[in-house]
Amino acid sequence: MNHRWLEWAKQIQAIAQTGLAYTKDVYDRERFEELRQMSVDILAHYTETDPGKIKLTFASDTGYATPKVDIRGVVFRDEKLLLVREKHDGVWALPGGWADIGLSPSEVAVKEIKEESGFDAKPVRLLAVLDKKFHGHPPEPYHIYKLFIRCEIIGGSAETGIETSAVGFFGEDELPVLSVERNTEAQLRTMFEFMRDPDKPVILD
């Protein structure tokens, strides 16, 4: 399916948000507000979602428009990869989530691993910085960068959290059904490449 309409809506929203942040002209502000509403109308038309909900989640930020940042912790034990089953969709993902204000990327990875799997971990190295639009994820209204950070277990034990219903370690040939919104099979196989080759260069984009 062609999702050009979604890319256009995201670009219009970004232009409108940035314009509203910097314009000093009352007439320009009115035009930027119209552009923002246009982006909401496009999403509402194609997704059949309530425009009020779209405006609240998609078109309510202020300031210069920037991508969101999703951080994933990559943990191996006995050559198997730590995954958690998400309550939201019932399928599996690397522990992780949105970057938090006040925390570094490594701190977010450690926090998410603890909250979602029960394990205490320490960060080891950055493995990849990926633009989600290039990697086979389902279309969505946000532009997202994904950071994959290798971590090592230093304590704790397997325990589910508020957002997870199961914790497990999986070999490369026994991967469960994945939450492709969060991570793809190709990405996880790349993580196994890093396990086999600790000197593999960081992947960008």
TrEMBL record:
PROSITE patterns, alphabetized: NUDIX
InterPro entries the UniProt entry points to: NUDIX_hydrolase-like_dom_sf, NUDIX_hydrolase_dom, UDP-X_N
Annotated Nudix hydrolase domain residues: 66-192
TM helices/strands, residue ranges: none
Family membership: Belongs to the Nudix hydrolase family.
Protein name stated in the entry: ADP-ribose pyrophosphatase
